[in-house]
Amino acid sequence: GESVGLHLPTLSVQEGDNSIINCAYSNSASDYFIWYKQESGKGPQFIIDIRSNMDKRQGQRVTVLLNKTVKHLSLQIAATQPGDSAVYFCAEKGPYGGLTGGGNKLTFGTGTQLKVEL
Amino acid sequence: NAGVTQTPKFRILKIGQSMTLQCTQDMNHNYMYWYRQDPGMGLKLIYYSVGAGITDKGEVPNGYNVSRSTTEDFPLRLELAAPSQTSVYFCASSYSWGRQGQPQHFGDGTRLSIL
After folding, report:
1. Any chain B CB within 8 A of the CB of A110?
2. What is the pLDDT of residues B77-102, one digit of tens each?
3. Could you tell me how far CA B112 lies from the centroid of its own chain?
4. With an 8 Å Cβ cutoff, are A111 and B42 in contact?
5. DSSP B40
6. Considering only CB atoms, which chain A residues are within 8 Å of B104?
7. Per-residue pLDDT tens for A50-61?
């Protein structure tokens, strides 16, 4: 039978359109969020991050929006290009530091497959 | 800029064998991490280190060991390989623990199969 979580949600967009990838996070106390892009056979590549005291942050062609009320994070990619095709996943970090318990580790989502159609 | 370098890229082990996955970074980062990634699943933290000589367990440490004798290197050891350890292993490093603009940087992974 199929393994739970084996098939990632997929977003298909036309080249040149804007893409919006969503992520629901679990911990209302998380104070740091990050988006990664992962191409097939490669390691995760940092895209953009945001702290919980902000609700929007912009980079080059990318914008991250944070809605703490509903614990929702989104990544917007402007003018999507074929090279943007990859798996995108978000991660959250709790507010606690220190050596013990790993309480401030990043918790990663499973990701969304972005496919850019020509 | 080499960043985070992992070796080997691929490996097949027999059940019960042992091996060490190598990870080195040239960014002078204090924090280093080992994750495993199973198909369709999020990255799971195995072990992490906040500096040379200091390591701690993550979410899924059983069956693994680490050491951190230098800032640059953070090897991961599998002592008795089991089929459940078939996965892709990623090493990462960061300057700080989750500060904006100082993210974790990842290597390209080691794809390990236990048969």
Report:
1. yes
2. 999 999 999 999 999 999 877 677 78
3. 12
4. yes
5. T
6. 34, 46, 106
7. 999 999 999 999
